[in-house]
Amino acid sequence: MFIVMITSECAPAAKVGGLADVVFGLSRELEIRGNDVEIILPKYDCMRYDHIYALQAAYNDLWVPYYGQWVHCTVYFGFVHGRKCFFIEPHSDRNFFNRGIFYGHHDDPERFAFFCRAALEFMLKSNKHPDIIHCHDWQTGLVPVLLFDIYKYLGMSHPRVCYTLHNMKHQGVTGDFILREVGLDNTGYYMHYDRLRDNFNPHAINLMKGGIVYSNFVTTVSPTYAEEIKYSDQNFGLGHTLHIHAVKFGGVLNGIDYDVWNPEIDRYIPYNYGIGNIEAKYGNKESLRHRLLLRQEFKPIIAYIGRLDSQKGVHLIRHAIFYALERGCQFVLLGSGPDHEINNYFLHLKHQLNDNPDCHLEIGYNEELAHLIYAGADMIIVPSLFEPCGLTQMIAMKYGTVPIVRHTGGLADTVFDADYAHKPYHERNGYVFHHFNYEGLESAMSRAIGMWYSYPQYFRELMINGMRYDYSWKNPGGHYLNIYEYIRDKN
Ligand code: ADP
Question: What CATH code would you report for 2-255+474-488?
């Protein structure tokens, strides 16, 4: 099958969060299974160009319609660790993708609407006729709308669209002028509740809603999140739309890429290890302490790696730091986020804890350090308010780092409590709490820390149970292929 991914992120070249990992890992798995996969991305100035090989112009004169005029674009081709990627560079004074950051500008909806139109124009002009177009999140919600209302009539008659919701918090709610920007001129037609009109703001359009309504199949990134967004307020207003389109909607748990996240072959960690020689993990713990100037003492290291965002439970992360220190643990945090207020909050905390030999907060994005933390820490906390899938807990388990998580979304699908899970002992792999408050968090942390100190043998079993789980792309890759085949063959 020929599959084209249209996306705003692909790891490790253009990565903000889990979306990037998913695009890379799923594409790789699909290729291993004999499919042809191409990925179309914007050409951002802030990409990791050191992860793109043989980058060169592949299509010099792509003219993309924009407000009734044309924007000249160049399309580049390069390999991102073996994946075939096209990068679209518009030559416009709007400077869409040369902003130094991926997201966070007031005109984000315009930037990515333009990208959707440009991606389809590129496919049309370069004669690409994929069986499946797979789009991701609000940034590419307009792709199926443009495909079925414009490009189908220009000759792209057979592609089917699979659309994946990675996070419903961000939907691309914006003014209807965006429609005219991309050539969907019949604004009144699209401003209908059955199409793109936002369910709550009657004067706005919702790009994610467009993706849901127009795609042939809609997935989200874990079965529990699929239920949660149908039946709770976690859909941020799109629950009704999901109900209407329920027959073409389902949850597929993300995988992680064991070529990237595997302590047996990880080149960013000084000591490789696996289930057979788990003691080598403690060499990494020592290196981590050395690198972050933490004291070498008989204590567990608890870590947090992730975006610093209200979704992730900012006050619980802060509480976890102080609770861990109080209970005789060390704490390492690696995080960053677009919200200045939250970033400053943690910078302030870092300042406050600067002289503490048991604590290190690293504010920023650092892929290499993330690997060492996964390998060196004993436990990782993920106290999210909601978590569509969550990759950090799955990565941590592969590294024998025991997750302490809140029971929500993909965390509920992947972490099974050491004491209370309805699972045999050998399938339990972490600690889980339910209530999104200090007491909930402490109940799980306290059990985990107690186990580490008092029953190291049992703690080690939990580590090994986690390492045994197969959270690779093998299973989800199969599920996605089934979905692709189903929509390809359906009339
Ligand atoms: P989300 O998609 O909500 O950001 P996920 O858990 O799905 O969260 O994915 C997070 C991914 O990003 C993981 O691969 C994690 O290791 C990585 N990551 C997050 N923050 C950082 C950071 N500051 N430095 C390095 N890697 C990070």
Answer: 3.40.50.2000
pLDDT (0 to 100) of residue 337: 81
pTM of the model: 0.94
Domain 275-468 class, CATH top level:
alpha beta
Which residues lie across from 87 on neighbouring strands?
41, 76
Domain parsing of the chain, residue ranges: 2-255+474-488, 275-468
Centre of ligand 1 from the C-alpha of residue 147, in Å: 32
Ligand 1 interacting residues, C-beta cut-off 6 A: 17-18, 21, 305-307, 334-336, 365-367, 370, 389-392
Query: Which portions of the chain are predicted below pLDDT 70?
Result: 491
Per residue in 227-273, pLDDT tens? 999 999 899 999 999 999 999 999 999 999 999 999 999 999 999 99
Strand pairing of 2-6 and 132-136? parallel
Q: How many CB atoms lie within 10 A of CB 363?
A: 17
Tell me, what's the pLDDT at 17? 86
Question: In 3D, which of 360, 362, 349 has the Cα closest to residue 302?
Answer: 360
Q: Which atom of ligand 1 is nearest to the CA of 19?
A: 2
Domains 2-255+474-488 and 275-468 share a fold: yes
